[in-house]
């Protein structure tokens, strides 16, 4: 049997490791499901979800030239319903749009009730948030790493 990328197959789990599970496929081939491809929700310990001998439905994600087969269980599952966040079309106010996210300061507490130390601590924390956001954005634009120029 010839495997194709995108094919959905039934297989049997032959081993569970921290990073993923090995699945025996039809035709005597073996593929691996990475832990990130098991479920749409976070999984800390894969052995709590999968066990050896369990039958699973998998989708073939890729087949490397060296014969390694990457599989996914979560891509065979029906899509999870997205919660209605009350967008403008639903008639509710305050919904989120698909516009880019822009940093907004957190809601301020009444200034009259805060001590000077509290106001300084708040200012410092907001400044650190802004600086870390700026660093993250500029590093993403540069390609992620520190580059040395001469």
Architecture overview:
The protein has 150 residues and is α+β, with helices and mostly antiparallel strands. The protein has one helix spanning 116-142, and strands at 8-16, 20-24, 30-34, 55-63, 69-72. Strand 2 (20-24) and strand 3 form a beta hairpin. The protein is elongated. The model has no long low-confidence stretch (mean pLDDT 81).
Topology order in helix (H) and strand (E) letters: EEEEEH
Mean pLDDT: 81
Give the biggest sheet. 5 strands, mixed, barrel
Principal-axes geometry comes out as elongated
Instruction: Tell me the helix content.
Output: 10-25%
Number of discrete helical segments = 1
Q: Compute the number of strand runs.
A: 5
Side by side, the strands of the main sheet go 1-2-3-5-4
Q: What share of residues are in beta strands?
A: 15-25%
Radius of gyration: 24 Å
The low-confidence parts are none
Distance between the termini: 56 Å
Based on secondary structure, the structural category is alpha+beta
């Amino acid at each position: 049997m010839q495997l194709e990328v995108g094919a959905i197959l039934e297989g049997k789990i032959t081993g569970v490791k921290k990073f993923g599970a090995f699945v025996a496929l039809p035709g005597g081939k073996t593929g691996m499901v990475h832990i990130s491809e098991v479920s749409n929700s976070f999984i800390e310990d894969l052995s709590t979800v999968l066990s050896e001998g369990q039958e699973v439905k998998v989708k073939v994600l890729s087949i490397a030239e060296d014969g390694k087969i990457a599989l996914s269980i979560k891509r065979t599952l029906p899509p999870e319903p997205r919660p209605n966040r009350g967008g403008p079309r639903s008639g509710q106010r305050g919904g989120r749009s698909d516009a880019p996210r822009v940093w907004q300061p957190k809601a301020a507490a009444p200034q009259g009730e805060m001590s000077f130390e509290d106001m300084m601590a708040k200012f410092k924390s907001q400044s650190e948030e802004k600086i870390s956001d700026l660093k993250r954005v500029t590093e993403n634009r540069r390609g992620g790493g520190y580059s040395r120029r001469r």
